[in-house]
Amino acid sequence: MSRVCELTGKKAMVGNNVSHAKNRTKRTFDANLIKKRFFIPGEDKWVTLKVSTSALKTINKIGIEAMLKEAKAKGFYK
Predict the structure, then answer these.
(1) Per-residue pLDDT tens digits for 40-73
(2) Per-residue model confidence as pLDDT tens digits over 22-33
(3) What's the whole-model pTM score?
(4) Which end of the chain is more exposed for a tag (fewer CB within 10 A), N or C?
(5) DSSP the chain
């Protein structure tokens, strides 16, 4: 499975490793993802999602149902 947040669409970025001698080699910066179970009271069921930690903070702030509604509108969640 790809390392993509299911609610925000965050994924890996590409950058450079820079050594002390300023040699540059390509590397990836992966999204900070965790696998988490959420209870959705409107549907009365548990859902397991792979979310970024910044999305988790947003869920704590606005709630899981509002976050799912926003993700569906943007096309990240089915």
Answers:
(1) 999 999 999 999 999 999 999 999 999 999 999 9
(2) 999 999 999 999
(3) 0.83
(4) N
(5) -----TTT----EEEEEE-TT--EEEEEE---EEEEEEEETTTTEEEEEEEEHHHHHHHHHH-HHHHHHHHHHHTS--
| CA neighbor of 5 nearest in space, from 57, 73, 76, 72 | 76
In our burial notation (b when 16+ CB lie closer than 10 A, e otherwise), range 12-39 reads eeeeeeeeeeeeeeeeeeebebeeeebe
Q: What amino acid is encoded at 57 in this protein?
A: K
Place of tokens 């926003």: 70
> How far is 38 from 41, CA to CA, in rounded Å?
10
